């Protein structure tokens, strides 16, 4: 009796916190939805959701503007995914390989290499932009129709953030499983994809998910390396109409931003089950 | 094998690294070629209009030629450029122009990075300060006087052209000129019992009093940010003392005079003409057109570029009272104030077909293209261009009115380093420090004046 | 895999080398990637930091003058301190908050998928234009936060204009975007073996006790990971102050990366930008070394 009251209070507290925090988290999106129907004056006049004179013009402009046939919202979506998807796949594969090397083996110089890798997290991108540009330029990759500068590096585990993430998760997987597999005659490569990768799948999904979100949102990368408007990804397309000098319609920018994140929301919503299913399938039992 | 590869890669790295340093170091000293052309141009004349090309150019109308062009802006500018480019292609079917365009956000980073690698587009819409910042030795942009038989340079005034001469080279033609002017929301003024547009300092002070008494503490006749304050102070000082802010690479004002200028700004704050900086920052907007205070009419005036009115007009909840004001003369020695090149158009040195690129520039700003471009990039600075745009009825009346008033009034030159980011930057610029610090009460007028003069002379000597 | 199994097969030195360095083979792509894509930009920026390089004027001076300037100028020193303050407020708040929410979400909750998505939304919005507009509207003098405080009879500060509170607004923005850290905690929490809890419950340990004696130790690798990466990110924070306060008021929210950006792109003082970036690099590297050496006292690895 006493226990169940405490239990109920606990439940109530959980939901109370979840909903309260949830409201704070989701309100910007709710506001954005409302604002897509507002005029400029209304958008900056307060943060209410409703508007007196709703207009669909923002959405109409968002989906119809095609810049003389150069680029439309649909084209921008296709462009975005045409480099984001390879980028995600290559990041996950190359990162898991590098992470395996770092976390499962001992060899001379490993710690030094690991230190070098971690340290690449510490330098801000702004000071690397120009040397990188010069380098890609010497490879002939500027304005590459295949977005080479945006995804080729990910083939080589250059995304330290994810390599390190996978190293940490891998180190929580007990060694007995791969030792057992080794006794059964599995080589290191087989152990990686038969034993380690399946057990790691929740964090592999998380890694792919983050890379997906960040790459979709990346603005400066495509801006530097893509010149042809018909090749612009969504992140550039969203901002194309923003003229700081003579002004622009915010409802349209917000409508575009909203449309542009829908795939990301859907992907997140669907992918999250993979953390859970992945785990129950892998069944880490001490 | 692996070792061999990594060694090879490392060697290649080292080589490029060295090469990188080499180019950077060599660019410090102008190459002998550049020096000789510089000599010859000075020998000819410093006046932009008199220079002539060293050889005659003919536009290639037969071979297929590809050009690239870049600009920043919003939708209507993108559309105008695209239409103009189509028209250009009709006129010269052998020339294909591929554009790259985007919003201002990140654009300068993109272009400066590309320029650093000599990968800029052939024809480039540039900000005025880019000439000084990215081509201080004339290394990045072509001297357009070389192509004066293709571009009709006589369509631009000498003042406008001279502003684009950097390192003795006409590195761009001005697309438009711009300056600052007041805009008023007369609806609020009427509520405060004022019918006429303010035309003097006394009018401003009277408006401040009337606003506070009749409408309340939240109402101000004018709202100006930190950089606006610097410009307004410059207008005031130049008018009162009759000398340009900076001339011959030296600030012409003493500390006492600057203190006078700062106290002028202070008097506007004290008399409720303008809100203090803390008040404005607390209201949480990044530009005045996005403030609730402007939208609702609580801030009833701004001091802005002549190209900006449509943005402010359309932001108002009720824009029936939006009016282009009059310039205000604060002293009796001069009108004061300045106009500047708002943007220009340049040909990069990496361009393979400068003659055709020059033809494109002439088409866009002197020829048929100007009728299509209209006032999309401001009121055309080219006489022929303005005439064509007006004939095509492609000029926004509000912008034209503001531009005409500004250009008729201002009578002081503008130093190109006035807008150096070291001074103007909203994060760590000297103007921001001086005017915010002064308004916050962190500095008194003497301290603020000293910091300002130190900052200005620092920038001037660095660029001397 | 250096198991001490008795070796009966005669092995060539090459084969033995291969066996001892199996791990290295998995690092070949990374090593190549580092040499091809990272080594040059990194090395260049370090070289640049000892020059007064301006890409459009060249180099006229070599030496440590940038570093001297950084540690003697009042502006840069105070910006470095602000950045440290920012990191020390943001990182712990964000980690505690993300862990707390992940912990609650790990119970059987109805609509858990929906909650998780909702909590991740701020991170998806990232540096979107909408965030700047909304965040300002929340914290302006007559904004939502002060209106709510007003209900409780509290006169809130002018958040954005106040030299003390403005930094806090910027910190809150990043704490609010705790989604990525939360996702990783969730993944880690799911990996804690359920039988550990069962055993503890039988022993009569309370939920709080279980949390601190089972949950936290089991997920320390991920806590550690989040700590290190969040520190690195906090020291490089740019977007928050850039879109909301532009470093103001009176430089109260000017973080190092804003200055680096200004030097690199606005005034083209690439040498200064690189030097400042490398000072930051050293600072974060030191913190990380401290963190890594502390690992053996509190991070639990299965290996």
TrEMBL record, chain A:
It holds the Pfam family BPD_transp_1. It is a multi-pass membrane protein. It is found in: Cell membrane. The keyword Cell membrane applies. Residues 77-271 form the ABC transmembrane type-1 domain. One of its GO terms (cellular component) is plasma membrane. PROSITE patterns: ABC_TM1 (PS50928). InterPro entries: MetI-like (IPR000515), MetI-like_sf (IPR035906). It comes from the Bacteria. One of its GO terms (biological process) is transmembrane transport. Keywords: Cell membrane, Membrane, Transmembrane, Transmembrane helix, Transport. The chain crosses the membrane at residues 12-30, 84-102, 114-134, 146-164, 191-214, 250-271. The keyword Nucleotide-binding does not apply. Belongs to the binding-protein-dependent transport system permease family. This is Oligogalacturonide transport system permease protein. The lineage of its organism: Bacteria, Bacillati, Bacillota, Clostridia, Eubacteriales.
From TrEMBL, chain B:
Keywords: Signal. Residues 1-24 form the signal peptide. Residues 28-54 have a biased composition (Low complexity). It comes from the Bacteria. Residues 28-57 are annotated as: Disordered. PANTHER family: ABC TRANSPORTER SUBSTRATE-BINDING PROTEIN YESO-RELATED, ARABINOSE-BINDING PROTEIN-RELATED. This is Oligogalacturonide transport system substrate-binding protein. The lineage of its organism: Bacteria, Bacillati, Bacillota, Clostridia, Eubacteriales.
From TrEMBL, chain C:
One of its GO terms (cellular component) is plasma membrane. The keyword Oxidoreductase does not apply. The chain crosses the membrane at residues 21-40, 86-105, 117-138, 165-189, 210-228, 270-292. Its main location: membrane. The keyword Kinase does not apply. It holds the Pfam family BPD_transp_1. Keywords: Cell membrane, Membrane, Transmembrane, Transmembrane helix, Transport. One of its GO terms (biological process) is transmembrane transport. It is a multi-pass membrane protein. It is found in: Cell membrane. Residues 80-291 form the ABC transmembrane type-1 domain. InterPro entries: ABC_transporter_permease, MetI-like, MetI-like_sf. Belongs to the binding-protein-dependent transport system permease family. This is Oligogalacturonide transport system permease protein. The lineage of its organism: Bacteria, Bacillati, Bacillota, Clostridia, Eubacteriales.
């Amino acid at each position: 009796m006493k226990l169940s009251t405490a239990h109920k209070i606990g439940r109530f507290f959980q939901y109370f916190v979840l909903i309260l925090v949830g409201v704070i988290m989701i309100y910007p999106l709710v506001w954005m939805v409302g604002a897509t129907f507002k005029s400029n004056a209304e958008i900056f006049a307060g943060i209410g959701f409703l508007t007196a004179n709703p207009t669909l013009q923002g959405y109409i402009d968002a989906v119809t503007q095609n810049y003389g046939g150069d680029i439309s919202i649909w084209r921008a979506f296709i462009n975005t995914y045409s480099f984001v998807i390879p980028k995600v796949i290559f990041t996950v594969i190359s990162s898991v390989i590098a992470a395996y090397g770092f976390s499962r083996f001992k060899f001379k110089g490993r710690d030094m290499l690991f230190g070098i890798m971690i340290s690449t997290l510490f330098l801000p991108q702004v000071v690397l932009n120009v040397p990188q540009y010069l380098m890609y330029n010497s490879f002939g990759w500027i304005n590459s129709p295949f977005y080479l500068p945006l995804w080729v590096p990910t083939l080589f585990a250059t995304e330290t953030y994810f390599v390190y993430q996978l190293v940490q998760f891998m180190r929580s997987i007990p060694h007995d499983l791969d030792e057992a597999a080794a006794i059964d005659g599995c080589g290191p490569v087989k152990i990686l994809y038969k034993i380690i990768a399946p057990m790691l799948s929740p964090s592999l999904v998380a890694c792919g998910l983050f890379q997906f979100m960040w790459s979709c949102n990346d603005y400066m990368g495509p801006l530097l390396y893509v010149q042809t408007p018909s090749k612009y990804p969504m992140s550039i397309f969203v901002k194309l109409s923003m003229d700081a000098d003579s002004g622009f319609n915010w409802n349209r920018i917000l409508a575009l931003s909203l449309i542009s994140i829908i795939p990301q929301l859907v992907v997140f919503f669907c992918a999250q089950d993979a953390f859970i299913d992945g785990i129950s399938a892998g069944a880490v039992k001490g | 094998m692996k070792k061999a590869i990594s060694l090879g890669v490392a060697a290649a790295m080292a080589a490029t690294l060295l090469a990188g340093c080499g180019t950077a170091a060599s660019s410090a000293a102008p190459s002998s070629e550049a020096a000789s052309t510089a000599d010859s141009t000075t020998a000819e004349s410093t006046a932009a209009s008199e220079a002539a090309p060293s050889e005659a150019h003919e536009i290639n109308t037969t071979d297929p030629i590809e050009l690239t062009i870049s600009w920043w802006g919003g939708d209507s500018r993108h559309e105008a450029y695209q239409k103009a480019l189509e028209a250009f292609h009709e006129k010269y079917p052998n020339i294909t122009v591929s554009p790259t365009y985007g919003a201002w956000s990140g654009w300068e980073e993109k272009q400066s990075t590309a320029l650093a690698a000599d990968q800029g587009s052939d024809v480039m819409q540039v900000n005025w300060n880019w000439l000084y910042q990215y081509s201080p030795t004339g290394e990045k942009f072509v001297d357009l006087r070389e192509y004066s038989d293709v571009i009709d340079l006589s369509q631009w005034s000498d003042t406008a052209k001279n502003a684009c001469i950097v390192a003795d080279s006409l590195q761009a033609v001005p697309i438009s000129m711009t300056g600052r002017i007041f805009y008023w929301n007369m609806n609020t003024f009427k509520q405060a019992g004022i019918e006429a547009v303010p035309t003097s300092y006394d009018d401003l002070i009277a408006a401040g009093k009337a606003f506070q008494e009749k409408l309340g503490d939240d109402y101000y006749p004018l709202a100006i940010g930190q950089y606006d304050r610097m410009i307004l102070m410059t207008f005031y000082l130049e008018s009162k003392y009759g000398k340009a802010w900076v001339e011959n690479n030296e600030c012409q004002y003493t500390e006492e005079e600057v203190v006078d200028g700062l106290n002028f700004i202070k008097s506007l704050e004290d008399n409720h003409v303008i809100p203090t900086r803390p008040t404005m920052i607390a209201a949480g907007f990044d530009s005045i057109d996005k403030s609730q205070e402007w939208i609702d009419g609580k801030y009833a005036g701004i001091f802005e570029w002549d190209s900006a009115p449509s943005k402010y007009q359309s932001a108002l909840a009720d824009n029936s009272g939006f009016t282009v004001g009059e310039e205000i003369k604060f002293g009796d020695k001069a009108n004061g104030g300045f106009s500047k090149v708002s943007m220009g158009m340049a040909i990069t040195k990496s361009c393979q077909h400068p003659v055709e690129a020059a033809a494109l520039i002439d088409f866009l700003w002197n020829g048929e293209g100007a009728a299509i471009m209209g006032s999309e990039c401001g009121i055309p600075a080219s006489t022929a261009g303005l005439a064509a745009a007006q004939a095509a009825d492609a000029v926004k009346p509000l912008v034209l009115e503001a531009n005409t008033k500004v250009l008729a009034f201002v009578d002081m030159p503008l130093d190109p380093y006035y807008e150096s980011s070291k001074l103007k930057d909203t994060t760590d610029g000297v103007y921001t420090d001086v005017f915010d610090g002064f308004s916050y009460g962190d500095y008194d007028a003497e301290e603020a004046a000293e910091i300002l003069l130190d900052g200005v002379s620092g920038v001037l000597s660095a660029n001397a | 895999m250096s198991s001490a199994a008795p070796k009966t097969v005669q092995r060539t030195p090459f084969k033995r080398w291969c066996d001892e360095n199996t791990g290295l083979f998995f690092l070949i792509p990374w090593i190549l990637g580092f040499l091809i894509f990272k080594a040059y930009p990194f090395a260049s920026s370090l070289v640049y930091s000892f020059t007064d390089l301006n890409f459009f004027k060249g180099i006229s001076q070599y030496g440590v003058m940038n570093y001297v300037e950084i540690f003697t100028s009042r502006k840069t020193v105070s910006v470095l301190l602000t950045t440290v303050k920012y990191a020390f407020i943001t990182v712990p708040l964000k980690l505690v908050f993300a862990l707390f929410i992940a912990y609650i979400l790990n119970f059987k909750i109805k609509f858990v998928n929906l909650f998780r998505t909702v909590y991740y939304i701020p991170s998806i919005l990232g540096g979107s234009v909408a965030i700047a507009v909304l965040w300002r509207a929340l914290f302006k003098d007559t904004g939502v936060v002060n209106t709510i405080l007003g209900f409780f009879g509290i006169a809130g500060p002018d958040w954005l204009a106040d030299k003390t509170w403005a930094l806090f607004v910027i910190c809150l923005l990043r704490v609010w975007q705790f989604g990525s850290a939360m996702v990783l905690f969730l993944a880690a929490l799911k990996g804690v073996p359920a039988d550990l809890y069962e055993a503890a419950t039988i022993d009569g340990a309370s939920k709080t006790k279980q949390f601190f004696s089972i949950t936290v130790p089991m997920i320390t690798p991920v806590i550690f990971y989040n700590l290190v990466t969040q520190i690195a990110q906090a020291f490089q924070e740019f977007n928050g102050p850039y879109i909301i306060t532009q470093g103001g008021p009176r430089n109260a929210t000017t973080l190092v990366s804003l200055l680096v950006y200004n030097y690199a792109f606005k005034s083209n003082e690439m040498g200064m930008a690189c030097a400042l970036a490398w000072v930051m690099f050293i600072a974060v590297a030191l913190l990380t070394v401290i963190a890594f050496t502390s690992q053996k006292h509190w991070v639990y690895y299965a290996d």
